[in-house]
Structure formats: C-alpha cells, structure tokens
Amino acid sequence: MAVGERDPVTGKHTTGHEWNGIKELDNRVPRAVFFFLLATILFSIVYWVLMPAWPLGVTYTKGLLGIDQRQTVEKAVEEAAAQRAAWTDEIVRLDFAEITKRPELMRIVRESGSTLFGDNCAVCHGTDAKGSPGFPSLADDSWLWGGNPEIVAETLRIGINSTHPETRFAQMPAFGRDGILDRPAISSIVSFIRNNAEGIDDLGPLDMKGVEEGAQLFAENCAACHGAEGRGDPAMGAPDLMDNSWVISSDRASLSRTIWQGRQGQMPHWEERLAEIDRKILAIYVTEIAGRKMEAAQ
Amino acid sequence: MIAGLTATERQIGLVLAGLVTLMGAALGIAGRNDVLGYQGLLIVVFGALVMIALLRNLDAPEPDESRLAEYYDDPIRFGIVLTMLWAIFGMFVGLWVAALLAWPELTFDAAWASFGRLRPAHTTGVIFGFGGNALIATSLHVVQRTSRARLPDQVSPWFVLLGYNLFCLLAVTGYFAGITQSKEYAEPEWYADLWLVIVWVAYFALYIRTLARRKEPHIYVANWYYMAFILVVAVLHIVNNLAVPVSFGSAKAYSAFSGVQDAMTQWWYGHNAVAFFLTAGFLGMMYYYLPKRAERPIYSYRLSIISFWGITFMYMWAGSHHLHYTALPHWVQTLGMTFSVVLLVPSWASAANALLTLNGAWHKVRDDATLRFMMVAAVFYGLSTFEGSFLAIRAVNSLSHYTDWTVGHVHAGALGWVAMITFGALYTLTPAMWKRARMYSNTLVEVHFWCAVIGTLIYVFAMWNSGIIQGLMWRTYNDSGTLTYSFIESLVAMHPYYIARTLGGLFFLAGAAVGTYNIFMTIRHEPLPLSRRAEALGTDRPLVPGE
Ligand code: HEC
Ligand code: HEC
Ligand code: HEM
User: Fold this and answer.
1) Are residues A135 and A254 in the same domain?
2) Same structural domain for residues A153 and A202?
C-alpha cells in the first residue's frame, strides 16, 4: 500500500489517497476485531454441530443434540397437560355443585376463569363483567336465561341468536315499527314500566302521563313474554323489567327505542372455540365468582 | 432550476413526463371501477405538473457552458427540501399512530385514519420518503465530490428524484385508500412496484456512469456503501414483489409465493431492507460527512474494507431470525441466528471506525451540534446492532418477539442512527449547497439536537419497559399450569408506556420541525458574496474540466 504523509494528530501514516479532502489512515485492523470474529464463528460452528443447521438436498444436518423445535413443543404441551391433569380430570368428572364445594378447585377456577374471561368475554361484557349498554352485566343477580351454572354453560355452548344450529332465540318484537303500537301507546307503557321498576329516581313530568293505560297495554302485549308482573321469563330470555338491571338503560329514550324497533342481542357460541372444560370453568366463574360470591369461594 | 437544463434536456424531460402522464391515464381508465382509478389520476396530475413547469420555461435561453465546470447540484437542493417535507409528514403520522395506541378513539371513525392504514403511511413516509430522499440527495453529492466528476447528464437525476417521489406518493395515498399487499415495508401494489424498478435501474445507471467518469484513481468507501444499497435494494425489491395482478384494471395482485416460502422471502427482503436501505446507505453518508465535518482522516482504511464485506455477506443470511419458533424449519432458524451473531463484529467495527475517526476532534464534538449528531448516531448504531444480534438469539427472541421490545429496537436504530446521521449530514450539506457560511442559526441546531436525543431516549426506554413487561406477562403461569394474565391485562399494563412514547415522539417531531425551519431560513438568507466563498466553502476540490 502506498504510504502517504503522517497525520499530525496521531502521528500515523495515511494511505496516500485523498477524496475531496478526506484521507484515510493506514491503521491496522485492531486485534480485537479478529478475536471476536473468530469467537463468534467458533460459537456458530459448535452450534451448527449441535443443532439442526445445514441443508443437504432434501434433508439437513440434524445436530448431535437431536433437538427439533416441533418435538420440543409437542413434548412441552404433553407435559403441561399431564401436570394439569391433576385438577382438570376432577373438573371434568364432578358436577357443578360438587366443584363449588371444593375450595382447592374453586381457587383454580378463579385463577384460570379470570384469564379465560379476560381473553374471550371482556371485550363485550367488560373486564369487571359489569357489562355496558347492549351487553348485559354478568355480575349482578338478574339473568335473562337463569343464573345457575348448567344454564350458563349451555348459553356458552350454543350462544344467543347465534349461528349455532341449536342457538337460543331471544326475540323482542318491534312493536312500533311493525305497526302493533303507536307512539302514544308506547309512551304510556314506558311510563308504566318506569313507575313500577325498582330504583328509578329520575321520574319527570312525562313519566306521570299514561301510567294507567300503560298497565293495560302491558298486560295485553307484553305479559306473554315478560310475565304478568313484568318479572321476565327465563324460558324465553325475556328480561325482568321491574328490577334495576338493564341490558341497555332505563331512560325513556332507550326503552321507547327498544319497544319501537325490537331487539335481538347476539351472544356468540363457543362450542368450537373453547374446550368443554374451559366453558365449564367459565360457567362457574361467571355465576359464582365474577363480582359476586367471590368471598365465599376464598 | 429548469433554466439550467439545455433545450434538448427540456424536450427529453417533456417527453418523459408526457409518457408518465399517458401511463397514468391508461392505468386510470383501465382501473376506473377500482381504487386504481384514483392512483392513475394521481400519476396524471403529477406528470402534468412536471410538463407545465417545463413548458413554461421551454423557451428560456440555453444555460451557460460554464456550468460544466461545476458540479450539478440542483437536484440535490431539491432533494434536501423533499427530505425535510417527508420527515415532517412521516414523523407526524408516527406521532399520530403512537397516540392512537394510547387513545384508540383518535381515528375519528374515518376508515383512512384507522391504525392499519396510518401505520404503513408512517413507515413508508419515514423510511422511503425521509430516508430515501436523504440517500438520493447525499449520494449524488458524495459521488460527484469523491469522484471529481460531474453527473453525466442533467435529466436522469431529475428522473430518479421525481420518479422516486411519485412512487412514495402512490404508496402513501394508496394506503389511505386501503391498497396494500400486506408485506411489511413492501406494501405498495404491483403498478407502483414496477414503476420503482424503472426508477431504480435509472438510479443505478446514473451512479455507475458518474463513477465511470471519475478523475480520482480510487473509489472512496462511501461509494461502495451507496452502491451496495442501490444494487441490493433492486434485487430485494424485484424478488419479494413478484406477483400476478388480478387484472390490468385492478390494484390487487397476488404474490408468487405462499405459506412459509412467502414468509421467508418477505423477511429476507425485510431484514435486508434494514441492512441495505437503513444501514449500508447511511453508512455511506457517515463515511463522507463525518470525516468532512470533523476534518479528520478515517481511522482505518482496512477496517472499513473488512466491515463492508462482513456486513454485506453476513446480512444476507440473517432474515430468518424474524421467524423464530414459526413454521419455518428449525435449521433455517439456526442459520439466521448464528449469522446474526457473527454480524455483530463487522457492525461494531464500523461504529468503532467512525468513533475512532473523531480522535483529535473531540473538542469539535463538544462545540458543534452538527458533528455531535453524527457522533451520537454512530453510538446508537453500535447500540442497536448489539441489541439486534442479541434479539436474534432464539431464547431471547422467545421473550421479545411480538412485543414492543422490537419496536423499541427499531427506533433506537431509526431515530438514534438513521435520523440523526441524516440531520448531521443535512446540516453539513445545506450551507454548502446554498453557498452560506453556516446554518441560519447554530442555536437552533443545538435545540434540535437535544430534542432528538431526549425524544429518542424517552421512546426507547418506554418501549424496553413495555416490551419486557408484555413478554413476561404473556409467559407467566399459575401453579395450576394456566396463564396468569389475559391479553387485555397486558394492554392495560402498556398504557402508561404508550403515553410516554407519544411524548418522546413529540420531542423528536418538534426537533425535526425546528430543523426544517432552520433549513428554510438558511435557504432564504443572503448567499455569501463570491469573494468570501472560497474562504468559507473552499473545501470542494474543483472539477477537472473538459472531458
Ligand atoms: C360479541 C360480544 C360478546 C362476547 C364476546 C360474549 N358475549 Fe355473552 N352476551 C353478549 C350479548 C349481546 C348478550 C345478551 C344477549 C341478549 O341480549 O339476548 C350476552 C349474554 C350472555 C349471557 C346470558 C346472560 C343472562 O343473563 O342469561 C351469558 C351467561 C354470557 N353472555 C356469558 C358470556 C361469556 C362467559 C363470554 C366469554 C366466553 C361471553 N359471554 C362473550 C355478547 C357477548
Ligand atoms: C315474544 C316475546 C316478547 C314480547 C311479546 C315482548 N318482549 Fe320485550 N323482550 C323480549 C326479549 C327476548 C327481550 C331480550 C332481547 C335481547 O336482549 O336480545 C326483550 C327485551 C325487552 C326490553 C329491554 C330490556 C333491557 O334490559 O334493556 C324491554 C324494555 C322490553 N323488552 C319491553 C317490552 C315491552 C314493553 C313489551 C310489550 C309491548 C315487550 N317487551 C314484549 C321478548 C318479548
Ligand atoms: C416522531 C418520531 C416517530 C414516532 C412517534 C414513531 C412512532 C411509531 C409507532 C407508534 C409505530 C408502530 C408501533 C407498533 O405497531 O406497535 C412505529 C413503527 C415503525 N417506525 Fe416509527 N416513529 C417515529 C419515527 C420513525 C423514524 C424516523 C423511522 C425510520 C427512519 C421509523 C421507523 C419505523 C419502523 C420501521 C416501524 C415498524 C416497526 C416494526 O414493525 O416492528 N419511525 N413508529
């Protein structure tokens, strides 16, 4: 290499080339570079010898350790299943009443139920299971279809107004849109409901109008599904209209809209998406733990 | 600018712009029942604007012969301005995307503003818009100066620069309209891809032709890096984008690859896009502007050779580290991982070569924010290549993959390395290009520097924390063998870090805005009187005239 002038700062020679004022020193490559190059290459060679590494036509070098990621995963999954079998077998075998009596099983139901709920249900029913408009609260004691774990497990399996062939149907007719009731009639029914339901403390002047007619209209049109007392009918998924739990809301506008245009809430079915044991855990979790008898279980 | 073109060059330009307009019209008509129609319209508008600009100056007098005794810098000046405009756009969208992850309702219910469309608009805006224009502008500067040769003609640099920006515009407007082939960093569809091939071949030819005219006996190392960048990006782009369009009138095309081959091709492309676009090209930038600004010789010529070939060879194998623990066969992952580990050595050699070059100039680093930008860039380059090799190790990757750690790593490189070396280079280049003694305000360069450093640190630390927490939450099990945390709980845990990242991005964007202002004010200021230019800017060696 043509050795050029000396660099005044470091005293080193330059290579003698210059490009628009830029020069290069003729310094040797630091030893450390070769050392680390060698070290990393050695590491690689050892790793290649031990692990699957180089292709050989249709096959590849398998490595002395005989490790393969697919087998590793399969084994890990089997081991994990075997480890869990201690309690999964129990949960599969026992019925709901027996499980709830076993604190050690309930601890597991609470742990894994909260994760299953967070991953599958919280998007609609909320992380606290308290619901939001359109998505019912699962944390109170008011149920559309009934609050025992067997029923909830079935709801999870087939869904509500879902695509499952056996789905539950919840059909609130569109009284207004279909011309069965006119606006004043609906307004009267709303007044009736709001005057009789629990926990409504924002009654206004409109709510005082038509309560009598409302009661009459309710008996004629609504009682078949919601019951003579308006306390709902779990066989049809018709909600209790006299408690203070609402799928949407108890304000006049929401009630009128529901009665005018009807409602068919959709709850997906989980038969293909969650294993039976997971649905069983969720059914117990939702009825026993989420926001309710948590303390009892602890 | 147009006045500097000869009459023939103006006519050639007019014909080229006319062809582009026709092409756009054909695409627009064929795709009139598809979103492709709008893309065609955009091409027509673009081509027509160029034609109008040329027509208005068609009869301007011929330029002076003396131009041939000077370097051809008009496209470089234009490129600098475009770089800063794309920087503001790309980083603003980045900030928006960051805010969107903290406050998801910020899409205002508009389809075009949804996360899936804004995100590629950000990555394309910053990588191709900001980074690409910076690379084109600086490469045309470096190749002329280090070859002591003028660009071979005055049309092809404009074709490359404008054509490239047309590609970027098609890409970004396409995303907003919902067009994507959903390959990361290769989202544009077939027609834009084909156009980029043409532009890129012209770019490569321009570079080679300039080098062929060089008056220096040797090719300076910065040019090897720029050439590797241009050549490899062409190969990557063509292979990864092989696809069959549904029809000539449809924006949609189907990839030639499927399944795991598709994934492997995509990440061979994706990783080498990082390697040759975001690394090799910017190393070229560093090898010119850093020694120039520091007024120091490169520490070691031999070290630059070793690291050049090391990086070029090793990167080609590393792509599979993006696909650890996937359907990709285990042996491919092994190779990707081991080559990524070896890759650390030439990468650190480059960073060391840059930092050792500063020996004897550290007092300048202290006083001059422009040089400090480049110094910090070299440090971040070292940091993020170390992190990259570390993340490529399978066991580490099992924790980091799919988490924000990756995003943090990307931005240590993108903000700390790519953007900072670019700002350093632009602050060196701008006064020289517009014949100013210095930038309009050195204080503002200083302000920009600190905004950039603070923004990068906040961003990177936020993402490290969030990524590691995320990774740990996803793999924590209860004694019973079930997962402890639901995904939604990990989202809740990330929220504060997403807010912090947004703040970091705000600092970085603010810095870029200050920089843009400073550059525009520099341009608007009085140029130095001719008599003082030699003294202030006399560093350029004159062209060797008459060839
Ligand atoms: C896509 C939104 C959605 C998801 C996800 C969802 N649900 Fe529902 N769920 C609903 C809606 C809506 C209803 C009310 C249906 C109606 O109005 O008739 C409902 C009803 C229910 C009911 C009946 C409540 C009653 O009072 O009888 C139960 C129990 C229930 N969901 C549990 C779950 C569980 C457990 C999960 C998770 C595996 C889940 N849901 C996931 C939307 C959803
Ligand atoms: C055919 C049976 C049926 C009849 C008749 C019927 N309902 Fe319903 N109603 C339902 C069902 C089922 C639901 C639950 C719908 C859902 O959430 O998917 C419901 C829901 C409602 C709700 C919403 C409750 C909430 O929590 O938000 C109101 C209010 C209501 N009905 C009022 C009425 C009134 C008033 C009438 C008479 C005018 C009436 N319903 C008649 C079946 C019926
Ligand atoms: C204002 C500064 C910036 C902000 C606020 C910002 C923000 C973001 C955000 C929020 C994402 C999406 C992360 C996710 O999906 O979780 C992202 C991705 C990305 N950004 Fe930026 N960014 C900025 C600057 C840059 C720059 C300058 C570059 C490159 C030159 C860059 C390159 C990228 C890349 C490559 C990705 C994709 C990362 C991946 O897929 O892992 N960003 N950015």
Assistant:
1) no
2) no
Instruction: For residue A233, give the 3-state DSSP assignment.
Output: strand
Same domain, B148 and B7: no
Q: How many domains does chain A have?
A: 3
Report CA(A7)–ligand 2 centroid distance (Å).
91
pLDDT at A147: 86
Residues A145 and A293 in one domain: yes
Q: What number is the average pLDDT over the span A195-214? A: 92
Same domain, A209 and A285: no
**Residues B45 and B130 both lie in one domain:** no
* A44 & A158 share domain: no
For chain A, give percent helix, strand, coil, nearest 5: 50, 10, 45
Report pLDDT for B381.
97
Contact of B369 with B442, CB cutoff 8 Å: yes
B415 and B466 both lie in a single domain: yes
Give the pLDDT confidence of B388-436 residue by residue, as tens digits.
999 999 999 999 999 999 999 999 999 999 999 999 999 999 999 998 8
Tell me, yes or no, whether A197 and A139 share the same domain.
no
- Number of inter-chain CB pairs under 8 A, A vs B: 156
Please report the pLDDT score of residue A1 as a whole number: 46
In a domain, B286, yes or no: yes
Contact B2, B57 (CB under 8 A): yes
- Write the residue with the smallest CA distance to atom 34 of ligand 1: A121
Q: Is the confidence at residue B539, as pLDDT, over 80?
A: no
Q: Can you tell me which residue has the tokens 């606006």?
A: A183
Q: Would you say B379 and B351 are in contact if contact means Cβ atoms under 8 Å apart?
A: yes
Does residue B207 sit within a domain?
yes
Q: What is the pLDDT of residue A297?
A: 42
Radius of gyration of chain A (CA): 35
Q: Comparing C-alpha atoms, which of A99, A127, A102 is closest to residue A115?
A: A127
Q: Is A251 inside a domain boundary?
A: yes
B539 occurs within a structural domain:
no
Instruction: With CB atoms and an 8 Å threshold, state whether B480 touches A112.
Output: yes
Q: In this prediction, does ipTM exceed 0.95?
A: no
Does A2 score more than 70 pLDDT?
no
Q: Which residue of B has its CA nearest to A127?
A: B488
Ligand 1 is surrounded, with C-beta below 6 A, by: A 120-121, 123-125, 135-136, 138, 143-145, 152, 155-156, 160, 170, 237, 247, 265-268, 270, 282, 286
Asked if A112 and B339 come within 8 Å (Cβ–Cβ), the reply is: no
Q: Which of B38, B60, B82 is the last residue of a domain?
A: B60
Query: Cβ contact (<8 Å) for B331 and A55?
Result: yes
Of the pLDDT bands very low, low, confident and very high (cuts 50, 70, 90), residue B534 is low
In a domain, B547, yes or no: no
Instruction: Write down the mean pLDDT value for chain B.
Output: 94
pLDDT > 60? residue A295: no
Q: Which domain holds residue A249?
A: 183-261
Q: Do A53 and B331 touch (CB under 8 A)?
A: yes
**Domain tally, chain B:** 2
What angle, 0 to 180 degrees and rounded to 10, lies between the N-to-C axes of helices B369-391 and B330-357? 160
Distance between CA B224 and CA B208 in Å, rounded?
11
Chain B contact set for A26 (CB, 8 A): 300-302
The tens digit of pLDDT for each residue in B204-229 reads 999 999 999 999 999 999 999 999 99
Distance of alpha carbon B260 from alpha carbon B281, whole angstroms = 29
Owning domain of residue B310 = 73-527
Neighbours of B445 (CB within 10 A): 22
Whether B494 lines ligand 3, by a CB cut-off of 6 Å, is: no
